[in-house]
Amino acid sequence: MSTAEPPPPPPAAPAAPRCPVLDPAGGALHAEAAGLRARGPAVRVELPGGGAAWAVTGYAAMQALAADPRVSRDFRHWPGAGEAPEGWVLAPFAFQDTFANTHGAEHRRARARIAPAFSPRRVEAMRPQVRATADRLVGALAELPPGASADLRQALALPLAMTVICDLFGVPDELRGPLGRAIDTVMDSSLGQDASLAAQAELGLRMVELVAHKRAHPAADLTGDLLLADGPDGRPMPEPELLGTLFAMVGAGYETAVNLITSAALALLTHPQELARLRAGAIGWSDVIEETLRVEGPVMYLPLRYALADLDLGGGVVIPEGDPVVLGFAAAGRDPARHPDRPEVFDPARADKAHLAFGHGPHFCLGAHLARLEAETALSTLFERLPDLALADPERPPARIPSMIVNGPAALEVVPRPAGG
């Protein structure tokens, strides 16, 4: 007697679509951002090293969220903060104990303590110092033999930005190189867990060394005047906050300017017609810098922000309360909804150069004035003193920084003087 065949199993339910994964190495930041933008005002993505967040890459949505009091940078507003793995590559930014990661009245009080040092008047007073540094560095490039090449990032952008920010905070000469290398390494979001832990430990060691030096050698600089001195409440800044604030200010001031200078130089060298217009006076340095900020902002995703309430972005997209958010600042200037005319093209003469390269709202970058001054001074000195400056290999685009956090060329090989010149 035969038995009936068992019924076939029901078809498996279709797998839930997987979140897109942000490329930890930032290999194609703008293409990645354009793909996310096409999917809606916010897209849930997987973060490097684990975890998920809502990525926002459109100008209007980003501007609205950056100014919305229902969006916080304080990781105490993230219910999932305790689930981050040890050695998480984004931890130095997301969990940094600094005024930048505070919210509301607490953030306003902490920011007010530091903001006056970066006012337009204070920054303008630094122009002679920045000019002297640029003259020295460009002078060294001019002394290279004809036909010799140099990495413009390492020879000009990086030492200029590091000199300016370290002078401002009183970083001793012997610590500047190690501190800069530690910051660069921590910015590499492609690091694995062990390498990330080592990089974070190295940066922490350098910051502790800096604070110890400043306590032993007090001076009239920002570290002494603002951070080691008693605050408005009569108390000194707690040590963890002091270390975090120094990293935030030195790291942000250094990386932003380096990437802006390098990207602007690359844009001019790959658009000779724009360089000719600049030299003819048809456009100015401000046009070049603002257009570079629009098309190649120096910062992409700066982790993280958190929804304090359900945030309805329209189009059926709601970011739930408690969820983390990453804003793609370097992507905003390329949003076709904001710049319908060739948004990806470097055009310093365009009338509308709106961007969010320095952020927006209460967390707008304190160092924006200084970054613009450094870029204008470095670039004008470079192109005036080296009129024949050219790319060493015009056919090969430079490699990008391996990071989803910052955006710019990892190196820029140039020939300051042509062979036979």
Automatic annotation (TrEMBL):
Organism: Kitasatospora phosalacinea
Keywords (A to Z) from UniProt: Heme, Iron, Metal-binding, Monooxygenase, Oxidoreductase
CDD domains per the UniProt record, alphabetical: CYP107-like
Protein family according to the UniProt entry: Belongs to the cytochrome P450 family.
Residue ranges of the region described as Disordered: 1-23
Gene3D superfamilies found in the cross-reference section: Cytochrome P450 (1.10.630.10)
Biased composition regions of type Pro residues, renumbered to the chain: 1-14
Record protein name field: Cytochrome P450
Pfam families on file: p450
